[in-house]
Design a protein that fits this description.
Structural class: mainly beta
CATH class of one domain: Mainly Beta
Order of helices and strands: HEEEEEEEEEEE
Strand content: 15-25%
CATH architecture of one domain: Sandwich
Helix content: under 10%
Largest sheet: 7 strands, antiparallel
Distance between the termini: 183 Å
Length: 362
């Protein structure tokens, strides 16, 4: 019947008809239940657990905050149920984080409280990891070091100063051979007990160091003396006093005192002077003799004047080989010979410089 009706009229009619049909359907759905006594919705508590099919309650069906602790079965929340970062500090019970819960290398330095790492917390194999860079300056005190643990390689060169060495701690075994040089010895510290017997050689002695007091009596033998070394003494005037003499030896006077240095040396006495034998009385001459400490020697000659009242030159030599070191006096003696006497016997009459010379030969 619409064959002759234009399309611009037909289309609006169809749209209006469809809209009216939809309104009628909605009215029937809304009004029919009340007219027929049918309730709208589900009563509270009407949907019990056995009314809900397994898996029917999905995430979208749950209101925010409706799932309480009591609704969650114990032990059913797995790692995949927890979002990253959702377990904060207050959610973890004290003591709940055990060793196996901590990932390797998860505990960094800032996670450890000061002084929290005690000796018992450090594994035996971990000690090797505590290197010098891990220690704070001056943190290793004496109490921290095991007795006897510090060996040579632990001590830096020059670190052991005098103040670090206990008194008496440096024993002989601690001193290297040839380590004690001259500047290490205090003045007068080397006593005779410190010197090995017979080790002082000529090179060790300073020039002029061996004085008389350093030489033991009798220690300088003839072999120790250089050839031609001698000592000499000379008397003063011999014109001191005249004597009357008999056949008994009479001392004219003491003329010279000397000190012999060595017991091994030889003493020679030389008298060279004018002399007068005085006036004889029953004598044929006067003999003269030199002595040391009033003792004559067999190794000597005698002087003689055989004419009464005359002056003559006499020379006497006497040698002493066994005199100990010491001080001695030289004297001159006279005797009338072979009998009788003589008066006015005198050496060096007029004082013409007669003398006695003593020589000590080494």
């Amino acid at each position: 019947m619409f064959k002759d009706v234009p399309m611009k009229i037909v289309v609006p009619i169809i749209v209006v008809t469809w809209i009216l049909s939809m309104i009628s359907s909605i009215a029937i759905v809304s009004v029919a239940p009340s007219l027929l006594g049918i309730k709208a919705g589900i009563d509270e508590g009407a949907v019990t657990a056995d009314k809900i099919a397994a898996g029917a309650v999905i995430t979208a069906k749950l209101a925010d905050g409706t799932v309480t602790s009591a609704k969650i079965l114990d032990g059913t929340i797995t790692a995949t149920d927890l979002s990253d970062g959702s377990i904060i500090a207050v959610k973890i019970a004290d003591g709940a984080v055990t060793t196996i819960k901590i990932a390797s290398e998860a505990i960094t330095s800032d996670k450890i409280a000061d002084k929290a790492v005690t000796i018992s917390k450090i594994a035996d194999e971990a000690w090797s990891a505590i290197v010098s860079t891990k220690l704070e300056n001056n943190s290793v005190t004496s109490a921290k070091i095991l007795d006897g643990a510090i060996i040579e390689v632990d001590i830096s060169n020059g670190a052991v100063t005098a103040a670090k060495i206990a008194d008496g701690a440096v024993t002989t075994s601690k001193i290297a051979d040839n380590a004690i040089v001259t500047i290490k010895l205090a003045d007068n510290s080397v006593t005779t007990a410190k010197i090995v017997d017979a080790t002082i050689t000529a090179a060790d002695l300073a020039t002029g160091a061996v004085t008389t007091t350093k030489i033991a009596d009798g220690a300088v033998t003839r072999a120790k003396l250089a050839a031609g070394i001698s000592k000499y003494w000379i008397s003063g005037s011999l014109n001191t006093v005249s004597r009357d003499v008999t056949t008994t030896w009479t001392k004219l006077d003491n003329f010279l005192t000397f000190t012999k240095e060595l017991g091994t040396s030889v003493i020679e006495v030389l008298l060279a002077s004018r002399a007068t034998g005085g006036t004889f009385s029953g004598a044929f001459g006067v003999l003269f003799e030199v002595r040391i400490n009033d003792q004559a020697t067999t190794m000597a000659n005698r002087g003689a004047i055989t004419t009464t009242g005359t002056i003559d030159f006499i020379t006497i030599n006497a040698v002493y080989t066994n005199l100990p070191a010491g001080t001695y006096t030289v004297s001159v003696w006279a005797q009338a010979a072979p009998s009788g006497s003589s008066s006015g016997v005198l050496l060096d009459p007029g004082g013409w410089s007669g003398r006695i010379i003593v020589t000590e030969s080494f």
